[in-house]
Design a protein that fits this description.
- The complex is a heterotrimer of chains A (about 325), B (about 300) and C (about 325).
- Chain A contains 15 helices and no strands.
- Chain A has about 325 residues and is mainly alpha-helical.
- Chain B has one domain (about 40-65, about 70-295): Orthogonal Bundle (MetI-like fold).
- Chain B has 12 helices and no strands.
- Chain C contains 11 helices and 12 strands.
- In chain C, helix 4 (about 115-125) packs across helix 5 (about 130-140), helix 4 runs parallel beside helix 6 (about 160-170) and helix 6 (about 160-170) runs parallel beside helix 7.
- Chain C starts with 5 loop residues before the first strand and ends in a 19-residue tail after the last strand.
- The chains are: A mainly alpha (about 325), B mainly alpha (about 300), C alpha/beta (about 325).
- The interface of A and C includes residues 212, 223 and 306 of A.
């Protein structure tokens, strides 16, 4: 098991290297660079050249990339072109806000969609199921920036119950952005929960449980749900992993001071180090969460645990398997 | 009890089998009200997109300003109100369907061609080729889609073509994965082996024997992807990175209406509704196709 | 050993599966009863309605599409179709338990086997979690699995061992009535005998009544006191073991015996019953066995035969016995 984790972590390295290179090079393709933006409007070509020299922009892209990577390997994400802060501090300043928003959204989504999905599955084919599924597909089809604007219009501008933007009113400023992001997540998760529960709900082992006298409540919440959990966890994991990079639009709608807005502002300012740094951090976060999710599978499903174990040390476990088979 | 769900027999004659399979799927889908509604709305939208070019004059009806009639509430002349330049929102939304649908379709076409090709090669060839393709797919898909599209579109610059490319490129991984997975399951079927035995070349085998049998999941994925591509396109436009301003792209119309949202919510309300209806009907259609093409999945 | 206490009484049970386009008539108007300590064999081909009958006894027919159309089921004095759900859950597992047919799918893959046995004990007996687990390990030993393996998951067990676990679950609370649905079908021949022995021992020790569902007449001969032969959702012949085996009345029962290899005459050809069971969505108006029956007459096509008593214990549903002197080739005549 440990070796499996280690292997997965090692496999992350080329992926992260690839991502960084990809992003760095794509951004370099863009017409115009930070010098164009930083230089005053009346700057001459020479002055701009000098600025490029100063920022190191005049050297070939691969040289700059390797230099960048060299620093990255030492834990240095570089300096922002546009503001006098390091990329690391720019990122860490915004990341908590985005994480807070993302976590709240995932909690909102899980809290609403699990009951709804299970409910729909238990009443499959009835009007209750139909209504749940219509709600889910509506949530899935709604562009979240639009939903955000509608929520803002109603609850902030018309009713005045909640702030229309920013992050400085604590929980109250969190509510609207959370619902905005959470609705889409909820839609996906409700559908996954329903279909996963439907796969399980007709299994023979639930009949065994009922025949033991287990109450229907426990049959569903314990016996069925634990078996239906793998796809649900996968989706929750993807959502958790995506929270750093997935809030761009909502952050922009609600002026939420998070990573998404930092990336957009930096893109507009051609601040390549900040964009690359943020994306590398986001990707790393995403991959680590997905790895964690993979490991959670092992706790939910003993069969997967056995697989992991046999992957990491083939010889010893195989004997065990044979023992079980012949016994 | 379960004896009703007999699958049509696999045979080496790809074409005949396909027709009966899709005939059956169509028969099943006709019973699905949601899917038929989706199909109807999508058809109407396509029609609107084509006809709006002939019925509306771009310069006067779509982008022409008319400050005398600015910011009107919905009325008999302007059913869905007017914007801050006095342009009719209904006309702009109708014309805007051209952008959303064409970006959605072209972007997914790009992803489809590239993804299916790469996925089929990876699945069929295996070995080092597969390894390389799949690692690249991993790299690509480990960046959140929206961020990747943002980066690509800001690097290429703002234009409709670049928007299509950005969204298309970010949708490639899903198609690679799906195609590879289905090819892997079909690859070792006997009829593929027999095709190899009679000396067909690899591309011939892939195109005429393997792909037709992996078609169902790809069709479903395509439909659903068009829906999400439309959302992505309007999202990027909303952020000011998509189709630039005077053009009536739904996302940028919505973005333009933000300033007036308190008193004239129409400018944000209606374009968003248009996006939602379009995406909803594509999703309904996609769900229906999935249930119809793969009855096993439906329980 | 036999007492007169009636553990189970089934009266006029009818179960349908109502699908969108059609209705599967799985069980049609069957009645039987079982006393304490008795074993009844429910015999018939696949699709005869045996498992549906068993599930109906536990009120576990999957609904939808399954519907218990009519009838009355009394288990240990409880009207199973009328009791409230809470009472039903008390009865299930405690008074009546079932060994399911397919051990591969009948165990929950994400809980250890001891947990699955202990759950039943926890529900029905006033014990702590720990005591229930201890007792579950004892049950495992009783079915011949070392207690050390209680913490393992179903995927770590072979088919035969899974079946033992399923049996242990069913027996965990010493039920009054045990339904064994083809308990040996999924097993190797060598394990089959062990499993049957196990059930038999437990029956002898605890005085459990057993419904043995099987298509194997050998198992019936070995374990049962009474037999009910089912065909297309009906009981076509029922009686004591001796009645049915030695005084066979129904042509279908005769067909079942004829399709067995004869140990006394190894050269004799097997005589299969020709044709297939009728489509349960479209049962014939008359006797369901008529199309395959070599004794069939005109009346069989239109008239539904009723179960008729031939002795106190022996009943059969065949119209031909209306004719004086008629008897199937096999078996002795009742005097």
């Amino acid at each position: 098991m440990h070796r499996y984790v280690l292997k997965r972590i090692i496999l992350l390295i080329p992926v992260l290297l690839g991502v960084s290179m990809l992003v760095y090079c794509i951004l370099d393709l863009a017409p115009g660079d930070a010098a164009d933006i930083l230089a005053p409007d009346d700057a001459t070509l020479e002055e701009k050249e000098a600025l490029r020299e100063e920022l190191g922009l005049n050297r070939p892209v691969l040289v700059r990339y390797f230099e960048y990577m060299w620093k990255l390997l030492h834990g240095d994400l570089g300096e922002s072109y546009l503001s006098p802060v390091s990329v690391w501090s720019a990122f860490t300043q915004k990341a908590p806000n985005t994480l807070k928003l993302g976590l709240a959204s995932v909690i909102f989504a899980v809290g609403t969609s699990l009951p709804l999905g299970i409910y729909a599955a238990r009443h499959r084919g009835s009007w209750k199921d139909a209504i749940s599924m219509i709600l889910a597909i509506l949530g899935l089809s709604m562009p979240n920036f639009w939903l955000g604007l509608l929520l803002m219009l109603l609850f902030a501008l018309r009713l005045g119950w909640l702030p229309s933007g920013g992050a400085d009113m604590g929980l109250r400023s969190l509510i609207l952005p959370t619902i905005t992001i959470g609705t889409g997540m909820m839609a996906t998760l409700t559908r996954t929960t329903r279909s996963s529960m439907l796969d399980v709900i007709r299994q023979d082992y639930l009949r065994t449980a009922r025949a033991k006298g287990v109450t229907e409540e426990v049959v569903i919440k314990k016996h069925a749900l634990k078996n239906a959990l793998i796809p649900i966890i996968t989706i929750i994991g993807t959502m958790l992993g995506g929270i750093l990079g997935g809030a761009t639009l909502t952050e922009s709608v609600f002026s939420w001071p998070g990573v998404g807005r930092l990336i957009i502002d930096s893109l507009n300012g051609r601040d390549t180090p900040v964009v690359t740094g943020c994306i590398i951090m986001t990707t790393m976060f995403f991959s680590v969460v997905l790895l964690a999710v993979d490991l959670i599978y092992a706790f939910v499903d003993p069969r997967i645990k056995a697989q992991y174990a046999s992957k990491s040390k083939k010889g010893g476990e195989k004997k065990d398997g044979e023992k079980a088979a012949t016994a | 009890m379960a004896k009703k769900q007999q699958q049509p027999k696999l045979d080496a004659n790809g074409e005949r089998k396909q027709r009966s399979q899709f005939g059956e799927a169509w028969h099943r889908m006709k019973k699905d009200k949601g899917a038929m509604l989706g199909l109807a709305v999508v058809s109407i939208l396509v029609l609107v997109a084509i006809l709006s070019n002939f019925l509306l004059d771009y310069d006067t009806d779509v982008v022409g300003m008319n400050t005398k009639e600015r910011l009107q509430a919905p009325n008999a002349k302007h059913l869905l109100a007017t914007d801050e330049y006095g342009r009719d929102i209904l006309f702009r939304i109708l014309y805007g369907s051209r952008y959303s649908l064409s970006v959605g379709l072209v972007a997914v076409a790009i992803a489809l061609v590239a993804g299916v090709t790469l996925g089929a090669i990876a699945g069929y060839k295996g070995g080092a080729v597969e390894e390389v393709i799949m690692r690249f797919t991993d790299i690509f898909s480990s960046v959140p889609n929206m961020l990747m599209a943002l980066v690509v579109v800001s690097a290429l610059g703002q234009s409709m073509l670049n928007l299509m490319i950005a969204i298309g490129v970010t949708s490639i991984p899903q198609f690679v994965r799906i195609t590879r997975a289905t090819v892997l399951t079909v690859r070792n079927q006997e009829y593929v082996e027999s095709a190899r035995a009679i000396g067909l070349s690899t591309p011939q085998i892939i195109i005429s024997h393997i792909l037709p049998n992996s078609l169902s999941p790809i069709i479903v994925q395509t439909t659903l992807r068009v829906a999400s591509a439309i959302i992505s396109a309007s999202s990027l436009s909303f952020l000011g990175l998509g189709i630039p301003a005077p053009n009536p792209e739904w996302g940028s119309m919505l973005s333009g209406g933000r300033k007036f949202i308190r008193d004239y919510p129409y400018m944000t309300l209606y374009p968003g509704l248009a996006i939602m209806i379009t995406v909803l009907s594509l999703n309904l259609l996609g769900d229906g196709l999935r249930d119809a093409l793969d009855p096993k999945l439906k329980n | 050993m036999m007492s007169n206490e009636e553990v189970l009484k089934v009266e006029n049970l009818t179960v349908y599966y109502e699908l969108e386009e059609e209705t599967v008539k799985a069980v049609n108007d069957i009645s039987f009863s079982l006393h304490k300590g008795e074993t009844i064999g429910l015999v018939g081909e696949t699709g005869a309605g045996k498992t549906t009958t068993a599930l109906a006894l536990l009120r576990l027919v999957p609904d939808p599409p399954g519907v218990i159309k009519s009838g009355k089921i009394t288990v240990c004095g409880n009207d199973m179709l009328e009791v409230p759900v809470q009472k039903l859950e008390e009865i299930r597992g405690k008074d009546i338990a079932m060994i399911f047919q397919d051990p591969m799918t009948s165990l929950n893959p994400v809980f250890t086997v001891a947990e699955q046995i202990a759950e039943s004990i926890e529900i029905h007996e006033k014990v702590t979690k720990h005591e229930a687990y201890e007792k579950a390990l004892e049950m495992l030993e009783m079915v011949g699995i070392p207690r050390e393996r209680g913490g393992e998951y179903p995927h770590q067990f072979s088919g035969g061992m899974k079946q033992r676990v399923v049996i242990a679950i069913a027996l965990a609370c010493q039920p009054q009535l045990l339904i064994a649905d083809e308990p040996t079908t999924a097993l190797d021949v060598t394990i089959q005998a062990q499993v049957l022995d196990l059930i038999k021992n437990l029956k002898d020790k605890q005085g459990t009544s057993v419904i043995m569902i099987t298509h194997d007449l050998g198992i019936v001969a070995e374990t049962c006191d009474k037999v009910a032969v089912m065909y297309a959702g009906r009981i076509v012949e029922t009686g004591n073991l001796d009645d049915v085996f030695n005084y066979t009345l129904h042509p279908y029962t005769e067909g079942l015996f004829n399709s067995l290899p004869n140990i006394n005459d190894r050269k004799a050809e097997l005589k299969p019953i020709h044709g297939l069971m009728p489509d349960p969505t479209n049962l014939p108006a008359g006797c369901a066995f008529e199309p395959r029956c070599e004794y069939a007459c005109e009346a069989c096509k239109t008239q539904q035969p009723e179960l008729v008593s031939f002795t106190d214990t022996h009943k059969a549903a065949c119209l031909r016995y209306a004719e004086p002197g008629f008897h199937v080739a096999r078996g002795k005549k009742h005097e």
